[in-house]
Amino acid sequence: MAAIHITDIEAAINHWRSRAPSPDGVALAPELRALGEAYALLVYAHQDAVDENHLVPAALAAWQAWYDTTPDTPCIAICSTSQGDDLCKGCGRTFDEVQLWPGMSPAEKRTVWRRITLEHSAWRFNRYAERAAEGPTSGSVPLRAGTTTS
Questions:
Q1: DSSP designation for 94
Q2: How far apart are CA 89 and CA 91, in angstroms?
Q3: Is the model's pTM score more than 0.85?
Q4: Which of 105, 92, 71 is nearest to 3 (CA)?
Q5: pLDDT digits (tens, 9 = 90+) for 5-33
Q6: Residue 39 and residue 66: Cα distance in Å, rounded?
Q7: Which one, of 105, 126, 102, lies nearest residue 116 by Cα?
Q8: What are phi and psi of 59, to 5 degrees?
Q9: Within the chain, where are the H helices?
Q10: Which of 49, 12, 53, 51 is nearest to 34 (CA)?
Q11: Closest Cα partner for 75 from 115, 123, 136?
Q12: Residue 17: phi, psi to the nearest 5?
């Protein structure tokens, strides 16, 4: 089985903090308590990942609920592995990762996501990320779906 990195546990904690805030500033939602304990054990042991089989069921369920809100695949529909590349220029996954993706566990997928994010060399992080961030052309103001003014 794959390991869940501490940064994913942090992201899940932040997800649950916004989704189930403490009503009195002291009490924690059960999901936060379970994830917080897993996080604390990692910090205490000076580890940066935990095997998904070693998480208590409540922590794994809370992590899985957060995971379900994230994009499943890094694919940007520009797959250079179909052209013979061993590493996709679009998403950064290897040929095997692209082929095996549907059968990978959520923790295995997040391991790949972490690697490609740290490498930060795929087009999804540079040339195509800029296009997505541009939004409407300057000078136009969106009114409602499908209409703008200049």
A1: B
A2: 6
A3: no
A4: 105
A5: 999 999 999 999 999 988 888 899 999 99
A6: 15
A7: 126
A8: -70, -40
A9: 6-19, 30-44, 57-67, 95-100, 106-119, 127-134
A10: 12
A11: 123
A12: -65, -40
